[in-house]
What we know:
heterodimer; A: Rossmann fold; 29% helix; B: elongated
Amino acid sequence: MNSVLAVEDLTVTVRDKTLVQDVSLTVDPGERVGLIGESGSGKSLTALSVMGLLPEDVHASGSVRLAGVDHDLIGADERRLSRVRGRQLAIVFQEPMTALNPTMRVGDQVAEAMLIHDTVPGRRAARAAAIELLGRVQLPDVLRAYPHQLSGGQRQRVVLALALANDPSLLICDEPTTALDVTVQAMVLDLIVRGVTDRSSALLFITHDLAVVATVCQRVLVMYGGRIVESGPVNEVFTSPRHRYTQGLIAASDLESADRRLPTIPGNVPAAGQFPNGCVFRTRCAHATEICATAPPWSGTASRGFACHHPAPALEPADA
Amino acid sequence: MRRLNPSLVAGGVIVLLIVVTALVSFVWTPYDATLVDPASRLLKPSWSHWFGTDKFGRDVLSQIMVGSRTTLFVGIVAVGVAAVIGVPLGILAAMSRRWSSEVIMRSNDLLLAFPALLLAIMFGAVFGASTLTAMIAIGIASIPSFARVIRSGALQVMRTEYVLAARAAGRQPFPIAVRHVLPNVASLITVQASVSFAIAVLAEAALSFLGYGTPPPTPSWGRMLQESQEFLFSAPRLAVFPGLAIALAVLGFNLLGDGLRDRFDPKLEDRR
């Protein structure tokens, strides 16, 4: 196993509802992978399962292995997980306004991230490292500021500095720019990409914004109804989607065709746990037939493939 | 700067007045508060005795001044006991798993159902009536309200992303409680402390009135009320002055609590 993250058959349930089913994915060292899907498709739950941060009544099964960690993260106790979190594995959440403790100075919070894992020799060194980290996200003078004195974009950059403080092997970003305005978005995205490239960290980038995936990621996983329905290199998936859901998703975000009505996917995302059996997309799919009541098998390889009985024809060179 | 609200100012002024009175009483009172002078018993208020004298000829103003020490002392220890036990209990209940949280909160309810004064009287009967036993009993009886308020605040803090982020950064539960939860419920602690303070002052007065609180000769507002009973018709002023003092102290701490609550109200947070 030489991938940084290997998730196998991850299933997340709450009471009798299944929210994420049989999700398998791998992220290679230094690779930037996007995870896209609508709200409720299970993207964030997948991320939280990897971190071991699911709420108390939500259960995950399957396997999550991280390079350099000799145990499975699913089912590991808090103590073992806390040694991994923030060290090999870091996360940036969506909402920068609440992601920092309002009663602590920003510099102390960044320094603390390193002191937790003893990656610096002492308080003085942690402080110096915090100054450097904040400098690298272009916030040189915020060390003594409290979070409420910073803007949303500034706070998200502090959160990024915090997440990258211990040079994690994998950074998970859960819609990190959704709450920011567009100009700030570009800057934060740039800092994220630069941050992970400098450290040769891998990136798992969760978003519903296809344009963001196209600029940030090399490979993309498409989630719908708690399953991965298609995966592959970003340019292949975006130019020649095979799964009907991906096709609809990309058509719906096609902004070049201004002369016609924006195409939409008919219907709504079913409520959590209410997805049909077989193909989860069949209730909204124009191509669905009887066979779709059985779960479609995965076609292609792990790195480029899809799960659909009636795939769209491949446009460019056949499946790699 | 935000404008201060009136109840915060009024409460603050009253509390400050009581604190200053207590401090002054250490260095100066018009007369020795415990000096018995049969020659000048039951005097009406005059220039030499502003609030008059009681049945033993003791100066009422001096007694009220010295009595404020007892009042503050009682409040501080009772609130201290309640906060030192109740705050960690509330945070623990908020952070622990469902069933252990239930155990804490249901035993909390048990204690809450037990009348504070009855507990204090029991303590007095077992350990002997003194200011200290009364204070500790009142403190113990105030634990549930602290635990309850702090738990609800801590539950809110536990749901914030910075606590999730702290866990994601590899923080253990205890440092999260101390570094993240405690500072963010500090405002609730302050508000609850001032409200509990008022309750403790009233409880001490009631206990002293019943004879289970501060034993003589240490002046206490509650006992002054009790001693004034037999003169309620001939010299009602003996009940009026300590009664006013108690009412003022309770009002002051309640106003302070209300004012602090308004100031810390999360809905107004954006204006800070």
